[in-house]
Amino acid sequence: MANDHEDLFRLLRMMGMPVPEDRDGDDAIPVDAVIGDADDTEGDDKKGTSASSSSGGGKRRTSRGPRRHAGGDLLDRLAQWSKRALIVACIVLVVVLAASYWWFHPALNLQSPQVWSWILGIAAVAAFALKVLSMRSTKHEVLLRRLIIVPIAVIAAFVVGVVAGFPFIPGNAERYATVLETTDGDFAEDIQEVDYADVPVIDRASAILLGARAMGSIPEYVSQFEISDAYSQINYQGRPVRVSPLIYADLFKWFSNRESGIPAYVLVDMVTQEAEVVRLDEPIKYSESEPLARNVDRYVQLKYPTYMFDQKSFELDEDGTPWWVYPVQRRTIGLFEGTTIQRVVLVNACTGETADYAVEDVPTWVDRAYPSDLIIQQYNWSGAYVNGWLNSWLGQRDVVRTTRGTDGELGYNYLAQGEDIYLYSGVSSVTADSSNVGFILVNQRTGESHFYPVAGATEDSAMASAEGELQNLRYQATFPLLLNVAGQPTYFMAMKDDAGLVKMYAMLNVEHYQNVATGSTVAACQDSYLQMLAADGTLSDEQAEASGVQQRVEGKIATIAQAVIDGNSHFYVTLEGSSDIYDFALPDLLSIVRYRVGDQIAFTCTAEEAPTADGSQEDEDATAVAEDVGAALVRPVTAIEQ
Predict the structure, then answer these.
(1) 407-456: per-residue pLDDT in tens?
(2) Please, how many CA atoms are within 13 Å of residue 405, restricted to the half-sphere of its CB?
(3) The whole model's pTM is what?
(4) Alpha-helical regions (H) of 80-148
């Protein structure tokens, strides 16, 4: 029996119950243990470990067992920490938060998603801490439990703010549609006719290739620095260029060169395809490759802690001084939505000098106050919600979006006009994206947006058409650039070989993209394109003469001959006093059959300086016919005067 008692006492001790010590010779003690909370354990221990009933065999009452909490063992252990341990833990937490803020530098703005991730994390820690404190203090337990509502309310406010930005909330669709105000424009009037001395003929990929070659010519730079991926397109001294700073090659190169800084940047002329490494009198000290205090992102964010910065760009002022351009975001819908630009911060990359401007007051040399991706997003909002949120899903009346680019990227390019850079993108219907309904041009400095309702080919269709024209050469077309050629919206593309080098150029009309004009130079491509427009009647006689691709000819017929080429009849005519041969193609110029040798005739044809062939088999056959009769030049006729 004694062994049974000892086993029972051992079990009770393991459960934390106070039991009497074993005493040799004592009689067995009847036990009726009550297992429960241990609030009065210490008091009961002080009063004694046993008590007898007045009848001599009464029950023994022990203190209640330890209280278990929903937090489990972790909360129990934290609740037993001393005050000193809790103070040390709080200090460590504050230091970690301060160091994390310095390193990650989130914007201290309630409209910043990054800062809300911190707020939600702090709210979760606060709720956890209040739970631990409530377990440590019996006196303030109820108050501390009620205070847990505060971090929960913060989390609830975040959810409400996110939901408030959804487009289905009443009034939000209209707000989304008006973030970017777009007006209709007239292409021929708004867009200057192209000056081929200023047409950028290479894309970003080609600029990167040329920049790398220029960098390779300076051995002392190659071993220490690399070229940043920035390659911002800007207008510099009236020329379209791409510019990108050098960066430290790695952490060890930074350690070796941090005192002297970054000595140069790369400049690529997009017209002449010339690249150079521009050495600076004062080196770049504030760079994205700096790991510590001079990291330009950290530097500008800590100097303007409440600003939410969008995608930065690297630009040059008219004196060639490098600057970092930081657009400042503002949310207009809910907590995180309806992003637009309200200010621009400029950072001198050499000295760290900063300047803060309202977006409408930025200097004219700044080209990229509105980031390209943001402009595309804003226009897609207006295209989707122009007739309300429900229509964007069901009826989809007048719902449009910008065209998609290649390789899943956004489809846009840049157009230089005056001192500014304009973003160009085609616009297509969401229900039928095989053709464009028009295109937009947005000034990246002012945010001014215009829509031009010109139906025609999408950019990828134009690229495929140009590549098909030169399929035997297997050239790849760059993303089209939009030009105004003789008042006609025109796609212009560079044709690159497998090495990424530009070999030829192609032009095609946005509305009539089946016919492609090509040339080995921009001027030759333009002449071929204008001739093609004049031949198919896209240009009027007055426009053709004004463009210089056509001229009026009058004289007496000296000879006339007929030939059939690829199943089409052609009349070849010479005039007295001229060795040129004039090609009258049927059936467009059927009235030529009425003329005989000796008759007086007047007509319009391609100008002498304009090339007559675009590489087609028909043109080669026509040239062969002309050579048979000793002609020096075959000039296609476009119209006969009656």
Answers:
(1) 666 788 998 888 889 999 999 988 876 788 999 999 999 999 999 998 88
(2) 16
(3) 0.75
(4) 83-104, 113-136, 141-147
